């Protein structure tokens, strides 16, 4: 499918920082410094559920999710990773990869609604993105 047929959902665009594209997914950082939180969004028009992807694309999504999760764990030295594809508020298929610490604002509960979003420090988030890009092989 041509890349031009796909676009990022407006809410995801508003809530994230784009850090690059893997073969299937756009990789994004959520604008909430409470948690190191990434999204993978398959660049496939009208994909809502994982089952909307072909079996080959599903395998690629798992490969990319694993690569990103491994990188996030290495960069953050987190206690636990949360990985989920919920899509209740935003229908476009996206996978959350969240680094959790026993000291974070929501531990041990889910992160949604646990604390108001905290703005990233511009320099810190750029350092975080650079470290992730190297680990994920985005340059």
Description:
Strand 2 and strand 3 (37-42) form a beta hairpin. The chain is 31% helix and 21% strand. The chain starts with 9 loop residues before the first helix and ends with a helix. The protein has 139 residues and is of the alpha+beta class. The radius of gyration is 14 Å and the shape is globular. Strands 1-2-3-5-4 form a five-stranded antiparallel β-sheet. The chain has a single domain, classed as HIT family, subunit A (2-Layer Sandwich).
Describe the secondary structure blueprint for this structure.
Elements: H1 10-15, E1 16-21, E2 25-30, E3 37-42, H2 55-76, E4 80-84, E5 95-100, H3 122-136
Antiparallel strand pairs: 1-2, 2-3, 3-5, 4-5
Features of the shown structure:
139 residues, alpha+beta, HIT family, subunit A, five-stranded antiparallel β-sheet, 3 helices, 5 strands
Looking at CATH, the homologous superfamily is HIT-like
Mean pLDDT comes to 94
CATH architecture identity: 2-Layer Sandwich
The topology string of helices and strands comes to HEEEHEEH
